[in-house]
Design brief:
By secondary structure, this protein is an alpha/beta fold. The protein contains five helices and five strands.
Amino acid sequence: MDKKLLIVDDEAHIRMLLEQTLEDLEDEGVNLMQATNGKEALEIITRERPNLVFLDVMMPLMNGLEVCRTVKKEMQIDEVYIVLLTAKGQEMDRQSGMEVGADKYMTKPFDPDALFQLATEVLEI
């Protein structure tokens, strides 16, 4: 079964950085997808059911917390592993992320090796 990974960020350079960090996973049969905002992300998650989502918190149309809450709490799609990415490392933000059902919380700038390691663990590669 093909594994799917969704990168969601409204900033093109961050999406590119994430894709470069994770592109080796494509050799393992992982389908890398991208969304530029929360609304688009929710549509892709609903349709594609990615195994793993790296989700930016601060975005237009619908922020990462709203997307996460919708997926985990309202739609109850538990098999999607959501990692919230944010520039904010305050404990309150981390708490908010956990409350909406995020599986993990990483702050920017992120460590590419840690990100890749996490992806391989979640995708069981």
